[in-house]
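pasting for ref
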Amino acid sequence: MKFFNRSIQPQIEAKLFKGKAIIIYGPRQVGKTVLCKTLLKQQENSIYLNCDEPDIEKALTEKTSTALKQYIGKKNFVIIDEAQRVKNIGITLKLLIDNYPEMQVIATGSSSFELANEISEPLTGRAFEFQLFPLSLEEMSQEMSRIEIHRNLNNFLRFGSYPEMVANDFENAKESSTLLAQNYLYKDILKFENLKSPELLEKILQALALQIGNEVSYTELASLLSVNKITIEKYIDLLEKSFVIFRLNPFSRNLRKELGKMKKIYFYDLGIRNSLIQNFNTMELRNDTGNLFENFCISERIKYNVYNGESPNIYFWRTYDKKEIDFIEEQGGKLAGFKFKWKKDRFKKPDEFLKTYANSSIELINQENYLDWLVGK
């Protein structure tokens, strides 16, 4: 079984004992607990608190700083796992930081919504935030050669890259992907904001899974599922805040022919996506291989940028006469466009984009060069 060091670990270590809390966001099973326990081993005077345990959740809920200190004792390195379960966790963390500056608190959350909404006000200027994704190609490259990574490309497109999948060489991957989707998507997410319709959530997810790589119309989704547009927006926002999906906005500035309203929606993990439509077929038996490759490259690029401290604005570009660029990064006054092709080694670059936008470029990403783009040369 392989073990992968996580890219954010040295970044977190550099922020320890700086008088601020550390918040680690990421979905369940992505490796937050393993990362925290790795950090824990480096500290002698430490304690691990799992808020999935009812007694621990209760002990941290709406307590005074004195009561919190009595519970934690003399420990100066405190990990609070699944912290979003604690009501008003932001106040709890603020009390610990303000009253015991010598203490390092690390809180993890499998959702950005409850944890982020609770702590945004109390912890203003008091926390460093990190996001942990499913394994990135860059992280895998520490233990796997490029040849081995490329040999597993079909597996990444079919089963995703959750640590358990990759570490076990995708053994029982179909069952594991399905179980992960069911346990996380249908049990955890429905607890938030008192959502009462798992059937609607499942239908929305399935509809989105079938539209990766295409613009998504909330109005059409609402009509298809016989609900109002506001409900669709609420569910999609919730799914984004729970690290299931992410949105790309259209790039539209100068040309009348540019599409400027509908968004594209992708999945952070393709194993989750494929489990929703129960299609784990190999690439030669699929008609969505190009869409999978596009989703894979964009999600991996987001990981790469976040872990390497880059934060470009990201978009897609498409015109009414169907000229398109799959992915655009805007940074430093430059526009870098990318087109993803599973098999083709060439494509016609849209001249009107290059002529309209100064300092712009367009590059083809395919099986020959995707690793250079996502891992580095």
